[in-house]
Amino acid sequence: MDGAIYEVAAYALRYWFIFVIVGILIAAIYISYKQYHEKKYVKGAMSRFFGYLEIVGGPEEFIGDRFGVREQNTIGSAQHTDITLPDPSVLGLHAQLSYEQGDLVLSPQPKSDTKINGRRAAQSHKLKTGDVISIGDVDFYVYIRRTRVGHDS
Q1: How confident is the model at residue 151, as a pLDDT?
Q2: Strands (DSSP E) along the chain, which ranges?
Q3: Cβ contacts of residue 55 below 8 Å, gap of 6+?
Q4: What are the pLDDT digits (tens) for 102-126?
Q5: Which of 81, 103, 133, 137 is the most buried (most CB within 10 A)?
């Protein structure tokens, strides 16, 4: 009887790595499948916008939130703004974003604490993908969807 147990254990140990590799492959395929569908959903949801802002700094509960950018947008802590940030460092109406002739333009309100890539913004500024804007203590990464005449990318 002891010999049979050892024989079964030796057989299992001989092929355990196959089970581990198969398990890892199944996990990798499952994770890739989920990421593909998430990316596809985000691209579909964002296709109706000119781009989006993603919160990358500030209060922990805001990190990762994304806001689609339309032709005209208001940013502030007031409920009537398009992008509402309930943070004490954000004014009721802090800044405006507008899409003008293919450019995304940030227009800060006077006396607002608004920065673009770490520099204080006192007047309107054209944004580009990769810029980081700070509205009070909240930092946004800017993504602008590229468009070509007659084609969306």
Answers
A1: 46
A2: 51-57, 66-69, 72-76, 83-84, 95-100, 103-108, 114-116, 119-120, 125-127, 132-135, 138-144, 147-148, 151-152
A3: 62, 63, 64, 65, 66, 138, 139, 140, 141
A4: 788 999 988 888 999 999 988 999 9
A5: 133
